[in-house]
Protein 1
Amino acid sequence: MTGVTGDEPDRDAVSALLEDSAEDLYENAPCGYLSTLPDGHIAKVNGTLLRWLGYQREELVGRRRFADLLSVGGKLYHETHFAPLLRMQGEVRGVALEMVAADGRRLPMLVNSTVKTSGDGEPLLIRTTVFDARDRRAYERELLRARQEAERERDEIRRLATTLQRTLLPPVLPTVPGVEIATHYHHASPFEVGGDFYDVFPLADGRWGVFLGDVCGKGAGAAAMTSLTRYTLRSAAVYDPDPAAVLTNLNTVLNQEQDGGQPGFCTVTFGVLAVDPDGCTLTLASGGHPPGLLLRADGTVEYVETPGGQLIGILPDARVVTATVRLSAGDTFVLYSDGLIEARVGDTRYSEQELLEFAATLASTAAADVVGALVDLLAGFGEGVEDDTAVLALGVPAPRRC
């Protein structure tokens, strides 16, 4: 036998309270509710939606259809998409529609609808939940504005980086009688200034200065170091064009520029080109730079090694290694930066040996053709080229065949 204490709540009161709470939850829910008959007439609507739209209940219930509350575009979408999908699927979720308030204001809403059916499958009611999307719309607009602003800033960064990069490369290379010159610069990223550089310029005694190198790092710091390096190489060559002396001078300048801060250094090959009736001679000095590639007219290919050359700018007395190359008709000599031989190919890096084997397959050893083939090679690596790459080729044209 069960007793009832005075502390137990009255069940009728609890039941009434629950019913009141359920009705209050419906009327004052944080979203709008409405039920419509199969023909679209509104049968029931909650207070939240009425407050949003500014209508009295008697103005809508039994008098208006759901579609009557939509904007012109919303009505068209409702008739052509929303209603047909609802009939076919029995529910439609997350559709963005504009509802028109009593005062003419357009309110962006997210609408979910489901069809309540009888036991034999006949539609009885359409229950619709409406969420106020004004905050979401404002958020989306702000997001769009922020994205457009970011795109504008990105385009400006790209433009500035491209412009700055151009100032670090010669706009036009000089014409060297009896020598063909071809160059290429591959930008790994349009948003960062790289540190690769090259140049060809005349010397006072009729010879030509040639250099190609790679400054450590990227961005504004690398750009400043590249500018200093190019200026120093040109100035040092005017004072003393001996290649080893030029790089020794550059090493001194870069060491002085460090001044206890971030070290600035580079790899570089500097050469002096002397042209004669039978071809040309290139005297080279290298500081830690990849070996030049020599392609002979007879199809043979080899590296011009400068082993032991040290990075320029690291040590007070960097070791510089020299070499001499003789080019005859049909021969081409290529300088390049390490972006080429460090390109990622699958899980490995493209190597100097693979580059040598690739060069041996070229049908032509003309400077422009060799650079064109290397451009195609870089393009084939795609995103595997993770660093900027500079290429400079000097060749003695083969005699024309009649």
Protein 2
Amino acid sequence: MKHTPITDRFRGKVALVTGGGAGIGRAIVEELLKEGAAVAFTDLNPATVRTAEELKTGDRQVLFLAGDMADEAFCQSAVERTAATFGRIDYLVNNAFAFTAKALDATTADWMRSFSAGPLAYARMVQHVVPHQRKVGGGAIVNISSISAHVAQANRWTYNAAKGACTQLTRCQALDLAPDHIRVNSVDPGWIWTNETDKAANLDGGGRAKWDPIWGRYHMLRRMGHAIEVARPTLFLLSDDASFITGTTLMVDGGYLSMGPEGLGDTAVIAGSD
């Protein structure tokens, strides 16, 4: 999608993004780099190192950290290596999250994975990042959540409960960290077209041309979102333009939650799909 980055908006700042190897996380990393930030990002797949190398163009500063966010030692290591490499940490984007969608069939291991690589990892990362943000006089944190935090969805006890926990976690973090000039907000996307969505669409045949209008019927804009459409609001919340915003949830959902169960009729107009 057409977008003009705000050049140098984050020049001299350092951001740490979890789950930055693909999808929404990758878009956030790319946009931060375009706007001047030095960026460290984590990913579960060690092969993502190739992605990091692709991002190192011009004077861009990029650090890739391979590991599992469910591992407490890795969470601490990721923060310390970021600070050691770039000398500071201003921003944290908690994005990596276990997608375990189970209900009556959920095992204790499923529940533990949902929370240890979900809200617990978000909490750990904040605990480790905050001392570094205090050193530079404050900062901002964005927790990437989901519409699944707000609605009931079939066979998703584990995922929706974990995302729901992020809402309260964000509010409590914002309250406790406000005296330190650290703002904490969450971004809650609707259905976003990513590599994983693309795989699912191709398995069923037809690709995006077929499935975007179908899945888009859950949204007022009658389409799924693009990863960059989540990245841009995330950067807004990190920036000084959002200096009086904390403890809030920014819905980036194309009108999903505002629309009732009747959905859209066949005559609805596709908006902003270019």
Protein 3
Amino acid sequence: MQAYLEFEKQVADLEGKIRELQNMGADGEDAAASVNLDDDIQRLKTKSAQALGDLYKKLNPWQKTQVARHPDRPHFKDYASVLIDDYQPLAGDRGFAEDHAIQCGIGRFRGRSVAIMGHEKGNDTQTRLKHNFGMARPEGYRKAVRIMELAQRFGIPVITLVDTAGAYPGIGAEERGQAEAIARSTEACLNLTVPMISVIIGEGGSGGAIAIAAASRVYMLEHSIYSVISPEGAASILWRDATRAQEAATSMKITAQDLQQLGIIDGIIPEPVGGAHRGHEAVISSTADTLDAALKEFDGKSGDEILKQRREKFLAIGRNL
């Protein structure tokens, strides 16, 4: 059953009527009545598709935030299972524990050996608890550093898929050096002499996202968000009122369209009409094509060239030219 967002009420009503008519048609025996129902169903499907398309053409930043957080969007494991052949998961930070919020592994992407990592939120209560809703502890970022060092040693590109509300802010995580782990992971990204391509597939929240997204190329899905803090957190700090999150989302410039215009990201990957959660195969295919094209840009480039390009990319952010 499709989970609808609060601004999709019109579409939900239309699709509800379609299901009612389909159930009536399945129970009916009158052929003439069945034909009439088919006509009504088709008319409603056309109207629903039009309503959905019109709605998603003019989403505001807060609505895009809701879409980015939709529980049915494809997650890291959905992408990795399709994109990567001969996938071999790698676990543990070799220091304290395995953090399930960040998944890592190596494999082959369209015939090319790669290291891949990303946030995994889980898709039901049990897996969401296991993966801590995609909020990594220090061990997750130290594991990410280990995988980046492995990729560097063997000269293979790194792909990262970002989808987190932010790093886990618990007491234990802070005691074990959360800030230091994020800083080390960001440093490791910036020091790689192999290509690193990042895609924001849902939420890109705060340092928890940038720690594995300081990449040679950064892309965002059409309805994803990327921000220094959540809209609710910003509203709580600025106005001491989390209910003003919609206002904060609009002011913060967190959408893919805003960030491309500001030069923060390198491109936008289109989503199916109605969001990635309505078309997993299509959005994963588009992501694969974008990753492939980005990696080919670095074929034949030396490690020094790759390192210089990445550093210049981030130093250029915010400059007035």
